[in-house]
């Protein structure tokens, strides 16, 4: 649904972080660096720290299967000279009790609370998770709308963590995020919104 150029712009993680900050999202302390010393200092100040990829990759194994760089906690002892080879994204780990996947389709926003992950990156544990469609907090919905407008997007799949105090922390927005793996009562609502958005593409719709 998004223009390909808008997708390209919105996939750039540094631009995502800057836009999210302008929109008022709570963002965990974050460092982008290829300096080993800076990475070590950040880990000491904000540990535990996680590592996240800066962009989606086309890496494949010998059988042609796509490989994913998972979100992982960083052992400070592993922050060696290899950090200097390319820019890395380090972030303070959110001690979350649940995750939120917020899927925005045009003017509609669907918020799914995800619970039950035994590990840091819930994408590795789809079958063990529970999913519940909840009301989107009004402030969150407003910031999501502002973010989409900042990039000229119609669709976005946002990831957030919820800590023990109920504070919602920004992780990222995938302008091409998936949703078909949700239970059917949830996914069919999003499919309907997508179909409606495509049906009315190009029309002016008052907000």
UniProtKB/TrEMBL annotation:
SUPFAM superfamilies named among the record's database cross-references: Glutathione synthetase ATP-binding domain-like
GO terms under biological process: SOS response
GO molecular function, one term: ribosomal S6-glutamic acid ligase activity
Domain of life of the native organism: Bacteria
GO CC aspect terms: cytoplasm
Name of protein: ATP-grasp ribosomal peptide maturase
